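The material for today's practical consists of a large collection of protein records. An example says more than a description, so a record of this kind follows:
***
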Amino acid sequence: MSKLDDLNSWHSNWSELRAVVYGLGVTGFSVADTLNELGTKVLVVADKAEDGIVDILDVLGVEYLISESPEAVSTRVSVFSPEVVITSPGVRPDNGFLLQLQASDIDVWTDIDLAWRLRDKSGRASEWICITGTNGKTTVTQLVEKMLLTAGVRAVACGNIGVPILDVIRDPADFEVLVVELSSFQLHYTNSIEPLASVVLNLAEDHLDWHGSMKEYSRTKGKIYNNTRVCCVYNVGDKSTSELLNESNNTESAQAVGFTVNTPAPNEIGWVEDILVDRAFVDDPSVALELASLADLSDTIVVSPHLMANIAAASALARAAGVQPSEISLALKEFKLDAHRIELVLVKDGISWVDDSKATNPHAAAAALSSFDSVIWIVGGLLKGVDISDLVSRYSAKVKAAIVIGLHREPVLEAFASLSPNTKVFEIPSESSEIMQDVVVVAKSLASSGDTVLLAPAAASMDQFKDYAQRGELFAEAVKREVS
């Protein structure tokens, strides 16, 4: 039995542990700060760091090495002789430093593993609801948080959603339930959590350049089901999610609940026309219990099959935690989607202008494309190793014209040329200083009443923008300037 096995509580003796923290972004700093508070002997290793963060480490008295030299890092870590390494989740699995440590039988954790062990800081261990999938993670995480808060539960969304989970663990608010969004990067390294409920929302090609294959990406996502205690939620419309559940470990006592955009079968939550119904958390599954309706949603929200699926998934997780139908209905009435998620920017002259800049992969873009009948599609960016051709082929009949942006435009242009040759395709030059203004001017000349001008790039944004948010903001600004 190793020393790490005994460290399963905030109140364990962490002072005798030697830990390396690898990476010094927001997550890395939260790990170093937490371990320092626990009295752990810490060495932070990173190839770069902001001056302000390094200054704080100096004040805290935390040891660190900021170096791009693998030799310098290896030597310093060897001398330090760690018993565990806690890595930032974005570090690739083929990283030489981590492979060297794992070959020496040194455990590699992320902040998620550490947070699980520390979740009883207040004296009572918090419950966790864990959410992953290629698309919809953030919306479902926020929906579950809202439903729990409406039910009077002290809940908080955290993890990949932006709030470091260790900051939540140390918050004096003493949260009863953590709603944890988990990326495939985090799940790759995570092994020890035992959620109350968990879900894989969907699976499609994404981050294959990081994971190496779709098989490995899927396997990693499926780890979220392992050791789930009460309820494992899967997507009835995506067979791969139920397959991952069937392959998971230690879930025999958990209820398997499907979510669907169609009429639900027993042990499912889904939709009967515009009514959300529950046939899983009921005494008699032949009876469908009404939870909410589409009429509960704000009229500023674009209703799509993707959103309906997200609502059904969130409701299943919330019901597993004991949330009542009236509380789900009220939560939906008060819920607001984040910006850049199929967000209606403007309607003028019968033309809708929609910002779905958050669609950074083909699967996400498909959710938007399926919501409209006649589309001027703004597409392109960094493709992250995925193939866009199936998306072009599947929605060819809906796309009146395509406006191509971004660095990886050749695969996009080739897909339209071979699979949708009758679609009008326009390119915005990469060197353009006003990309979105040029996009909107072209789109305005093409669109007519009944059309939707849709920014759903199916690609990452960092080739031409700071992030997807800036891409969406610049689009919205250009629409309001050029159209309204």
User: Anything to note?
Assistant: The two ends are 67 Å apart (CA to CA). The first strand starts at residue 18 and ends at 22.
